[in-house]
Amino acid sequence: MNNNQLIASLIHIDGVSEEDILSLLTQPKDLGYADVALPCFRFAKALHKSPVEIANALAAEISQNLPSFLLSCTALNGYLNFKFSRENMAKETLLKVLSECDRYGSSDMGKGKTICIDYSSVNIAKPFHIGHLSSTVIGGALSRVFKTLGYNVVGINHLGDWGTQFGKMIVAYKKWGNGMDVEQGGVKALHKLYVKFHQEAEKDESLNDLGREYFKRIEDGDPESLALFAKFKEVSLREANRVYDRLGITFESYNGESFYNDKMQPVLDLLAKKGLLVDSEGAKVVEVGDDMPPCLLVRSDGATLYATRDLAAAYYRKNTYDFDKCLYVVAYQQNLHFRQVFKVIELLGEPWAKDLEHIAFGMVSLADGTMSSRQGKVVYLEDVLNSAVQKAKEIIYEKNPNLENKDEIAEQVGVGAVIFGALQNNRIKDITFSYDKVLNFDGETCPYVQYTHARANSLLEKAGAFDPAKANFSALENAHELVSAIASFGDTIKAAADKREPSVVTRLAVDVAEIFNKYYIDNRILNAEEGVREARLLLTFAVKQVLKNALSLLGIAAPNKM
Ligand code: ARG
């Protein structure tokens, strides 16, 4: 139990559950007042008493039997104020970190629950561009957050590997491409072919028909077309995996759109049987309400759509994994698409429709004005990572020329900066990405957090072995803010899961780093007197551990030196 839960269990008010109390507990901005407070205004009506009377009565009752983790329980203006025993809280928190280390912050609250997370979901034969950065790192972070809370997580890369564009690719490849170019040039070469196809098709309409014909051949299982399609997929995935490795991303499933080719008909049949599938100028649609256009599922030429495959995928996931939640980490541009798909499932009467959630996020653009789609200029994610690492290298060679493994650390710092930069704001915000901003060692950035971790580590190395049993925790009264931040790590992870919001974790990491750096200026650690020294070293250890665990949740390495 954490402190808030312990407090909630002390408060007994008729008709109010412990959960209600827990949700009402607040942390005042000014910790001098109280560490946690309960506003009693909500209870006035039911109890026929004023909030002031209620708070006073509760304070008197709880103070009579004050548990050891509390220093005081008092009432003020209708608020019930709790102060923790700082010494005890420091002791409990730091010893917990010491005994749990890499597990600190984890829990088993999700035990027995399955959560599917559809993320990254790149498109085959198309650039893995900066637009996929957010989905990839938000989805990756959420996967780790839920795993840390004991959930069974199924990470799904719903590959965009179906559609007429693959017929066009085959035509382009047969006309202008060759195996060598594609083998060496990878997706860039494939993308070039695709661009060329569209240029040529402007002049020669018949190419589009040919493209459709070749797509039909893929659908019909023509060996030559299938082999080429498989080749494109292999080349694309090889490149994507290179990026995933650097970002620390893994998936449980790569079932993409093509996987659902033979799984759409049963869903269409079900819709027809329920009378939900209606003809509209030769096409088949489902009416999804007045506030949305109908959901188009079969085109007049018989072709299925992105939405049709998403419907089949939702059923497949429910049947295969029996998920408690299925999250789709996809840009907000697809809001309408998901509202339509979820509505269709609701209309089908599936009770699990409510467990489908679109986790939307904003757009990423580069500060220097290059934005993927608008100017037709594609910014490859791999190039962004390479540039960030290159810049990190320059900084590190200048700052710390004697450091060993400079290149390895530059990779960790550069890639970390990109990930952290993409996770730092509320996900729904659009972000303008700037290398200088994310690589600033003194800002609210990844290098700052990593650097603080390395600093804590070097302090501990200098100290050598020490005996935690000698720690005098009363020496940490002035470190209460830092101890509180460390103690809140488990709740932070839960909040990140509840809100599906990795920025909650980046925020805590920056806070812990900032508070520690301030503490470190004002308090001697290595040459403090016995007892004080051990307590402060233990605090330093906990800072290092929490920063490491937080970064690891985000998929970021915590180098010991930098
Ligand atoms: N491939 C799509 C895109 O790049 C994203 C797919 C998201 N997942 C899904 N189940 N629709 O826009």
What does this entry look like structurally?
- There is one protein chain.
- This protein has about 550 residues and is of the alpha/beta class.
- Among the domains are: about 5-85, Arginyl tRNA synthetase N-terminal domain (Gyrase A, domain 2); about 165-225, no CATH class.
- About 55% of the residues lie in helices and about 10% in strands.
- The protein contains 21 helices and twelve strands.
- The strands form four sheets. A four-stranded parallel beta sheet has the order 5-4-9-10, with helices on both faces. Strands 1-3-2 form a three-stranded antiparallel beta sheet.
- Helix 11 packs across helix 12 (about 305-320).
- The longest helix is centred in the middle third of the chain and has 25 residues, at about 180-205.
- The protein is flat, with a radius of gyration of 28 Å.
- The chain binds arginine.
- Arginine binds near residues 121, 158, 310, 328 and 330.
CATH class of the domain at 3-84: Alpha Beta
Radius of gyration, whole Å: 28 Å
Give the CATH topology of the domain at 3-84: Gyrase A, domain 2
- Main β-sheet description: 4 strands, parallel
What's the gist of this structure?
With 562 residues, the protein is an alpha/beta fold. The chain has helices at 3-10, 18-24, 44-47, 51-64, 86-100, 133-148, 164-176, 179-203, 206-220, 223-247, 264-273, 306-321, 335-347, 381-399, 406-423, 435-438, 446-463, 480-487, 489-499, 503-522, 532-554; strands spanning 36-39, 70-76, 79-84, 114-118, 152-156, 277-280, 283-286, 295-298, 325-329, 356-359, 364-366, 431-433.
